[in-house]
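Example record

One chain of 121 residues, shown exactly as stored in the release files.
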Amino acid sequence: MVTFAKSSVMAVGLLLLIAPLVATAQPIVADRSHTSVVELGKSGQSTGSVESLFPLMMAGSKEAATSEPAAKTPPQPGMVWVNTETGTYHREGDRWYGKTKVGKFMTEADAKQAGYREGKR
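Predicted structure tokens for this chain:
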């Protein structure tokens, strides 16, 4: 009997913690057309609520399902994409060209001179 009472108290406490989040999420979820945090912010919710809910809303979306990030466009043709985190560079046509989380475009000569090595294709 005591265990049941403790469980009930814990369940009620959990519901009290979750209720404000659910109340905030309901008007946002009703309109699933949001594609960015900025658009989601127009729903009238606080910035903190928006930033915490956006990844959850995108979890089942087409954008979240993509396996590879969108490629960035080089400022001029013939440049390589340098992954500054791994110290490698990728040529146009390579899988990770312009797609790594951290990186920048530069000429191949500049990349080699800076100590970057060619990445695997």
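Notes: The chain has two domains: 2-65, 80-118.
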